[in-house]
Amino acid sequence: KDEYYDRIISSYTVYPSNKASDIVIEPFNMMLCMPSLLSYHDLNSCIDNETLFDISGRLFHNERPTFADLNEYICNIISSSTA
Length: 83
Description:
The chain has helices at about 25-40, 50-60, 65-80; strands at about 10-15, 45-50. It is of the alpha+beta class. The chain is flat. It has a two-stranded parallel ribbon.
């Protein structure tokens, strides 16, 4: 951050959801990484995994999206925000 003081360092974070995974420690891992995200990045865009599932069902009529579908939605979000 000190080397690139004239640039905005951004990150994209996908928050875990119970619909995508049944691993218990995912929310804890997310909370543990938050201090480093806040201290090393100027801009952090949070993407909620559960919202991705809702968007998939309501807009694209895909009730059981695969990880490839969710990755495509995330890629579209990132590319539209950086264009």
